[in-house]
Amino acid sequence: MIIANDCVVAFHYTLTDDDGVEIDTSKGQEPLAYLHGHGGIIPGLENELAGKTIGDAMKVTVQPADGYGELNPELIQPVPRAAFQGVDQIEVGMQFQAQGAGGQMQTVVVKEVDDENVTVDANHPLAGKVLNFDVSIESVREASEEELTHGHAH
Q: Which segments constitute the PPIase FKBP-type domain (predicted)?
């Protein structure tokens, strides 16, 4: 079966950055399964998998616009330390949940700390990065009615 919309695809992958540093992998785990054409994986990778089949292996480079987007400088902001009540020690790299402008919860990462402010970044950790995938297709099948109704693989 060929990968097309409404197929459930399972694949193994290794994701690296442009320096060859491994970011994520499915090695030693179950393959990642998704419902093709329903936005379950980043668009740049999904587009490259279309038309492939079981046993195919490929290397895919995804530019930021087709991955997690470009780095948005507006999502990097100083926040008064007083907003972190109850947190004694704030360090670069710490993650916090914050309420976004639309009321949704989002994860922010501490980028800088001084006596008055904590600079946080609400960009996705992979925003602005070129992503390099090494992929092997493990299975392709028709999605069930339930999967199509729910919009994801089960």
A: 6-83
**pTM, to two decimals:** 0.83
- What domains are defined for the chain? 7-68+127-150 (3.10.50.40), 73-121 (2.40.10.330)
**DSSP readout, 3-53?**
--TTEEEEEEEEEE-TT--EEEE-TTSPPEEEETTTTSS-HHHHHHHTT-B
How far apart (Å, rounded) are the C-alpha atoms in residues 152 and 35?
5
Greatest CA separation for the chain:
60
The residues pairing with 131 across neighbouring beta strands, listed in sequence order, are 62
Bridge-based pairing of strands 131-142 and 105-113 is unpaired
